[in-house]
Each structure stands twice: as C-alpha cells, then as structure tokens.
C-alpha cells in the first residue's frame, strides 16, 4: 500500500492537470469503483504484486478497462508472477472471492481472463528490487 501511495505522488507530480486515485480509497462500493474506471479513467496503472490479480476488485477493474478499451500500464514488482494457463481457466479458485462476487457487477470470469491476457501483453514497467522509495519508481515517468 505504501508503494502505491508513492506511485500516486509520483504520477501527480508528472501531470498536475490529471486526477490520480487509488482504488483502495473506494472499496466499499465496487459498483462505483468499476463505474469510475469505465467513465473517468484514461489509463489504468496496475501495480502488480504477488496478490494483485487475486483481489476481485483489481480483477474487476482490469476486466472493465479491457472491455471498454482503456489503456492499461502494468507496473511489475519483483514478487509478481503471471497466472498460469490453468489458473486463468479456474479463476474461482485463483481469486479470493470471499470479499466480492464479480458476477453481481456483470463481470464474468471470461472478461477477467481476457483482461488479464490483455494486461500481460501490454508494455510493462519493471521495478528494480535493489531500489527503495521514490528511486524504485524512477522508470515510471
């Protein structure tokens, strides 16, 4: 969470005319969160850690961006590994669905899988594990 906040500060410093928000500030109402992605996001920056894609709200945001043709930019931490083909085929077990069911927001597993595949084919930024703080985020600019 701290790295995501640093990334937000860095992105705000690059373009003061753009609004940058972090999804974790608005997790109480996922329908609102997905609507924000659908209607107000020009570029979804996905901060990829080992758990990012297992979180239903993150999966829903990625699927929403994919379905609406919104550019996504993956920022990959050293701890991240892409889901396997088998995991993409069995997203109900891959994702932690204890906190949310994406179907209630009309987001299917197929949409999530397509969003994940689209994200994997996007130009990514890889963070250097030897750096910390703002130095780690230098390549984001």
The CA-CA distance between the termini, in Å, is 20 Å
Low-confidence regions:
none
What can be said about the biggest beta sheet? 3 strands, parallel
Helix content: 40-55%
**Rg, nearest Å:** 15 Å
Individual helix count = 7
Principal-axis shape: globular
- Tell me the number of strands: 3
The overall average pLDDT, rounded, is 85
Order of helices and strands: HHEHEHHHEH
Spatial ordering of strands, largest sheet = 1-2-3
Structural class: mainly alpha
Beta percentage is 5-15%
Description of the molecule:
- 43% of the residues lie in helices and 10% in strands.
- The protein has seven helices and three strands.
- A three-stranded parallel beta sheet has the order 1-2-3, covered by helices on one side.
- Helix 2 (30-40) runs parallel beside helix 3 (56-67) and helix 3 crosses helix 6.
- It is globular and about 40 Å long.
């Amino acid at each position: 969470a701290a790295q995501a906040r640093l990334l937000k500060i860095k992105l705000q410093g690059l373009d003061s005319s753009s609004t940058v928000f972090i999804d974790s500030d608005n997790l109480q109402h996922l329908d609102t969160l997905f609507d924000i992605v659908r209607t107000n996001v020009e570029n979804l920056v996905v901060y990829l850690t080992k758990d990012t894609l297992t979180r239903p709200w993150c999966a829903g945001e990625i699927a929403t961006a994919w379905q609406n043709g919104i550019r996504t930019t993956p920022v990959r931490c050293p701890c991240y590994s892409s889901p396997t083909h088998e995991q993409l085929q069995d997203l109900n077990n891959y994702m932690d669905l204890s906190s949310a069911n994406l179907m209630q927001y009309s987001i299917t597993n197929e949409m999530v899988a397509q969003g994940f595949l689209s994200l994997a084919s996007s130009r990514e930024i890889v963070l250097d594990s030897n750096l910390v703080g703002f130095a780690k985020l230098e390549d984001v600019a």
